[in-house]
Amino acid sequence: MSVKVCKFGGTSMAAGNVIKSVKKIVESDSERKYVVVSAPGKRYSNDTKLTDILYACHTALISGEDFKGCFEPVKARFRAIVKELGMDFDIESVLNQTEERIKKEESEDFTASRGEYLSARVTAEYFGAKFIDAENVIFFAPDGTLDEAKTYPAILAAVKGVKLAVFPGFYGTGADGRIKTFSRGGSDISGAVVARAVSASLYENWTDVSGFLACDPRIVENPKNIKNISYKELRELSYMGANVLHSESIFPVRKANIPIQIKNTFRPEDAGTSIFPINRYRPDGRLVTGIAGKKNFTVIFIEKSLMNSEVGFISKVLQVVTREGVSVEHIPSGIDTMSLVIESSALEGGVLERVLQDIKNAVSPDTLRVIENVALIATVGHGMSSSVGTSARLFSAIAAAGINVKMIDQGSSEINIIVGVGNDDYEKCIKAVYREFFR
Ligand code: ASP
């Protein structure tokens, strides 16, 4: 029988009434056997996420401030959830034990992880499911990455013979034996890890949106939903700033060819977005799947005659930025030119001046120019590479909107075209590209 792993995010865990819907969702499909939960998220827009309160509790604890007062809202939140669910569950003892262990451990990761721990304890009890503590089944290697060899068999052993299990997301045990968390939003990763371990047929990620939109709704009103997307396309888009899913969470499932489906807990009937490995991917029939972008890049333009025949030219330039610890976003190049596209924030505090001087010293360019306030816009879709005239349409649309293109880079994966425009033209450019390919 195939099994599905469902991860429910913070808003799905925010209050008792939503957890009731979560139970209905899980029970409506017998393949939904393994559930991974986040800590309670925001109930309304200016509410505080429980994890943020816990980080504040840790600060209070180590600085000798009012830890008890800080932890009180955490207790109140779980008491309210248990009450709303009408459960006969001794949450008080669990909260007190948790408080004691937080004081004993005095560790930021431990304290932060308790939102997921408590959320999973309550959910497991409410579902009549087995609680499997991530502490015992998710392990990190000494370098801080997931210890896959130890983790997958441990999860598999823990679920053996279990009908329905609930795991807390976000944490596991570090190589030093202490609780360690993933980065923020990391319950997405936990869900993917469990899905991988049990060879799930699908990893369902339940959020508060009906999947990905083809572009930023703050820029284009009511953009189309993306029904299907490939892992590769998502990478190209997420790296430019789309952030429904933690970007690291795709790696465990992608390796095992397990699709992900993004679903909306508040509108479970909506199709959501399915993310497929390339061999199972059926595009929607569109040339372009999505458009994403980011502002505030700096382009360092370097020109030198016969650059292409000077051995080691690019390498010398890259050594300069590497020495400064600056990472380069793109390197568009021509026969005698190359550009470094770098996030402007990485060049603050005198770094830009040093980089320019070092490039002069290293390669004596004929021209060295800096273009600031550049926004990058990626237009992404598998359909693009195989269809003649896509880039012509893209650039005509941008030109017709009166936008000056400062830089072009066609990713070597051939599923994206990135254009650099002035920050001021960012919104206008996204609108123009959207209109061309989606309206
Ligand atoms: N609760 C954690 C956070 O706020 C992890 C998660 O929600 O995925 O980052």
Low-confidence stretches: none
Distance between the termini: 42 Å
**What is the helix/strand order?**
EHEHHHHEHEEEHEEHHEEEHEHEHHEEH
Name the ligand types: aspartic acid
Which range best describes the helical content: under 10%, 10-25%, 25-40%, 40-55%, 55-70% or over 70%?
A: 25-40%
Describe the main β-sheet briefly: 8 strands, mixed
- SS summary, helix count: 14
Radius of gyration, in angstroms, nearest whole number = 25 Å
State the strand order across the main sheet. 3-4-2-1-7-9-10-8
Q: What is the strand and helix layout of this fold?
A:
Blueprint: E1 4-8, H1 16-27, E2 32-37, H2 50-62, H3 67-84, H4 91-105, H5 108-127, E3 130-131, H6 148-159, E4 165-168, E5 171-173, E6 179-181, H7 187-197, E7 202-207, E8 228-230, H8 231-238, H9 250-255, E9 260-264, E10 273-276, E11 290-303, H10 313-323, E12 337-343, H11 351-363, E13 367-380, H12 383-386, H13 390-400, E14 405-410, E15 416-422, H14 426-438
Parallel strand pairs: 1-2, 1-7, 2-4, 3-4, 7-9, 8-10
Antiparallel strand pairs: 5-6, 9-10, 11-12, 11-13, 13-15, 14-15
The structure holds aspartic acid.
Write out key terms for the chains shown:
14 helices, 439 residues, 8-stranded mixed sheet, 5-stranded antiparallel sheet, alpha/beta, binds aspartic acid
